[in-house]
Design a protein that fits this description.
- 2 copies of one chain form a homodimer.
- By secondary structure, chain A is an alpha/beta fold.
- In chain A, about 35% of the residues lie in helices and about 25% in strands.
- In chain A, the strands form 5 sheets. Chain A has an 8-stranded mixed β-sheet, with helices on both faces. A 4-stranded antiparallel β-sheet of chain A has the order 13-18-20-19, sandwiched between helices. A 4-stranded antiparallel β-sheet of chain A has the order 15-16-14-17, with helices on one face.
- The radius of gyration of chain A is 24 Å and the shape is globular.
- The first copy, chain A, starts with a strand and ends with a helix.
- Chains A and B meet through helix 1, helix 2 and helix 3 of A and helix 1, helix 2 and helix 3 of B.
């Protein structure tokens, strides 16, 4: 008995059958005596289809008009879900982002939620309505529609849970929860019962795309407990919270990210300010740099190696050339690399973690190109072809099959 | 130089190519120095597709949620048209019904416009923006989306033209204007330069589906001059106004309506109140009755014959049976009938019109089943198989080829 916010992504409402499935989950929750607010994304490929339609007419359409177009996607899914809930005989009302009180700033396409005016939401809950809210969207101070950017529906759900002080925020996806590694690739991967916000953030950044990062950041900020679970299989999922039950597990997950390019700059003059100029330039052009490695100066030169996303590789090379005057063969971009990471909040107090990871890789003869560590994460860059067996080896080293 | 409202229907914006075509018409009008407000319907079959999607999930969906679903249709078309206009380098903004200030009552699915708050529209025009407005939709006092019903975009356009005191309201369609008969069927049919509101109303009711009736009623009420013209062929259309130039033409058009069922009730007891009870019952169930014919009483009984739309035929028969106690063979529904009408404001002062029409039908040996006349219209009911040649014969009698 309480107030539960449930969020369903596009694939969970992709067709009539799945919409009915969601309607059943929602009404069962309501039937158990809970107030329910449901946040929904656009159906299946709707958003991509709309983007394609716009591109056919104007590939450089303004973001304001793109948001006007894309917000129609959730408008369709909320009304269809409401109709499905009506057909099961429950009281329901659908609300657009602005009707649900979502005020955002004016950064079309990636707007930030400024506040939620909950009057309408509360009034509908008081009438004992199930409230279906369009995720991903809001209204700015000019009364124009905005979108929160990809994955924004997770953020909408967490924001509503926070604003209404909900007892739980359930994010339904097509996986059963958060796993210690990709279960399709690593046979021994297990589902976690609990995980901390910080661990979840590291895992999300590293390519375990279960929850949108901004939603986790918001959940952490407002201390909203999230449950990640499957919309297709009725089993308990993973709880994301401030302090997770450690379950004697040092490491929470092992992830692989192949969307990585390694840029090597060999023989940079060893004078002050070069690194600063280089990375300032990359930042100014919006190129995110992940791992950085700089060799000790020798013979008046040094080597700088760093990683960016694959798509930013060619641009990064161009920008390097603008800063350092070196022949082409000295500036190399390698996309055949992968980043393998272990994540776990307990890690910082266990100094042996890094060496244990290196040992696992050594045992299967995988060469480490770069290393980066943070308080709850160790990442290594390796050859892309070794990535899958590296994940399995590292995973089984830390999380042997029980 | 002035303020022009232009309305484009669903087929005019059915695909990317047609959206670009509309963008060119709009920007040419703007380029000539006019302020332009464009009202757009949903693209092509969007509305029907959405209705089908809803029916798959819940055939008895609430009208409130249907309106939430359907209004997404124009939201997509306005943004796509705005993007097309952007691509031609003109300043433009799209506005939803509620953003354009459309306040309606709460009759979901067939809402009436109560007022238009023009602040936003005027502000955008003051910025020299082309304003693209979603037709067919508004907002009720509960801040919920409503639709005006089929053809409602015409009404939206006329309402904006009236509210902004526009110099002209152009309704673009896939025909070139209003014709004296269906040009695909009657070779001698010609396009009218001008027509009065009343004539247009009669023609629309009779099946010449060029303009939505409510929009013509509104145009008449607020004296908004409408031009009906083609979005594909750049030629002058037909002006709809209070007093039209008669052009020496008595008759403005000849129409055919085959969506008619004739109900014959034979041998009704000739006692007072039967007709009243019957038609009150039909009205209470929402069955519109068109032509009514009652025979003179004879042998204590009389015959009542009336027409309804084909879809209402079976219901009408049921309702008749509830009022009069007659065997089944005495209550007959015939759908193989057609209504042929001539319309013209000059008609009332020319008593020969009816006999001229009957003469034309007599000449081609067509039997007249029922007759109805109004100040500007004469309708006859005939066998459906004779309908096309009857239209041609009547048309050529009144409007011989020049």
């Amino acid at each position: 008995m309480g107030l539960i916010v449930q969020k369903f992504g596009g694939s969970s409402v992709a067709n009539a059958e799945r919409v009915m499935n969601v309607a059943r989950i929602v009404t069962e929750t309501y039937h158990s005596g809970n107030d329910v607010v449901v946040v929904v994304s656009a159906q299946g490929d709707t958003t991509d289809d709309l983007i394609a339609k716009a591109a056919e007419i104007n590939p450089k359409a303004s973001k304001r008009e793109m948001d006007m177009l894309l917000t129609a996607g959730e408008q369709m899914s909320i009304s269809l879900l409401a109709m499905a809930i009506e057909s099961l005989g429950y009281p329901v009302i659908s609300l657009l982002g602005w009707q649900a009180g979502f005020n955002t700033n004016s950064a079309y396409g990636m707007a930030r939620i400024k506040s939620i005016k909950t009057d309408r939401l509360r009034a509908e809950l008081d009438k004992r309505n199930i409230v279906v809210v369009a995720g991903f969207q809001g209204l700015n101070k000019y009364d124009d529609l905005t979108t929160l950017g990809r994955g924004g529906s997770d953020t909408s759900a967490v924001a509503i849970a926070s604003a209404l002080h909900a007892d739980r925020c359930q994010i339904f996806t097509d996986v059963e929860g958060v796993y210690t590694a990709d279960p399709r690739k690593v046979p021994g991967a297990r589902k976690l019962k609990e995980i901390t916000y910080d661990e979840m953030l590291e895992l999300a950044t590293l390519g375990a795309q279960v929850l949108n990062n901004r939603s986790v950041e918001m959940a952490k900020k407002y201390n909203v407990e999230i449950e990640v679970l499957s919309s297709l299989k009725r089993v308990p999922g993973t709880i994301v919270k401030e302090v997770a039950n450690v379950e004697k597990m040092l490491v929470r997950g092992v992830t692989k990210d192949t969307d990585v390019a390694r840029i090597s700059v060999v023989g940079v003059p060893d004078v002050p300010g070069i690194a600063f100029k280089l990375f300032a330039k990359l930042a100014a052009k919006g190129v995110n740099v992940d791992i950085i490695l700089q060799s000790v100066g020798r013979d008046g030169t040094k080597d700088i190696t760093f990683t960016v996303s694959e798509g930013n590789g060619p641009l990064a090379v161009e920008l390097v050339k603008e800063v350092v005057d070196l022949p082409d063969e000295k500036i190399v971009c390698d996309t055949q690399v992968a980043k393998i990471s272990v994540v776990g909040a307990g890690m910082e107090t266990h100094p042996g973690t890094a060496s244990k990871m290196f040992e696992a890789l050594y045992e299967i003869n995988v060469n480490i190109q770069m290393i980066a560590t943070s308080e709850i994460k160790i990442s290594v860059l390796i050859d892309e072809k070794d990535a899958d067996r590296a994940v399995t080896a590292v995973h089984n080293k830390f999380l042997p099959e029980e």
